[in-house]
Structures are given as structure tokens and as C-alpha cells.
Amino acid sequence: MLDGWWIEACFEGVTGWGIGGSAASRRTTTPKEIYDKLERTILPLFYDDPSGWPAMMKQSIGTGAYYFKSQRPR
């Protein structure tokens, strides 16, 4: 779900996926939407693209670590 820091870090298909949009639309997100995203996007990447899944994990870790850290600028 796109909330908290994930709304800033989620680059669809690069660092992960978002399900739903604003807080109002999340209330109406249906299980069908979630299962469609899993069936058509996430699971094919995991099972059918052996290099794609690790690339996505690395992008997610790299982006998250770069933008969201506890160090303060000097």
C-alpha cells in the first residue's frame, strides 16, 4: 500500500509495486486488484525472470538506503 515512506520510495516496477493510491482509494482497493497485481506482474517476475527479481531487490535496497537513512547532512 502506498503510505508512509513507501509512497516516496516506490517507483512502480523498479523498486517494487504499489497497490491502491491515495488513502481514499485504498479503502476501495479490492482483493481482485491485489491478486491481479500478483498474478500478472509480481509472480511472473519472480518465477520467469531469474535476473529480474534480484535486480528489483537491489534497486529497492539501493534506493531505500540512499534516500532513507539516519545520517544528517553536515
From TrEMBL:
<protein>
    <submittedName>
        <fullName>Glycogen phosphorylase</fullName>
        <ecNumber>2.4.1.1</ecNumber>
    </submittedName>
</protein>
<dbReference type="InterPro" id="IPR052182">
    <property type="entry name" value="Glycogen/Maltodextrin_Phosph"/>
</dbReference>
<keyword id="KW-0808">Transferase</keyword>
<dbReference type="GO" id="GO:0004645">
    <property type="term" value="F:1,4-alpha-oligoglucan phosphorylase activity"/>
</dbReference>
<keyword id="KW-0328">Glycosyltransferase</keyword>
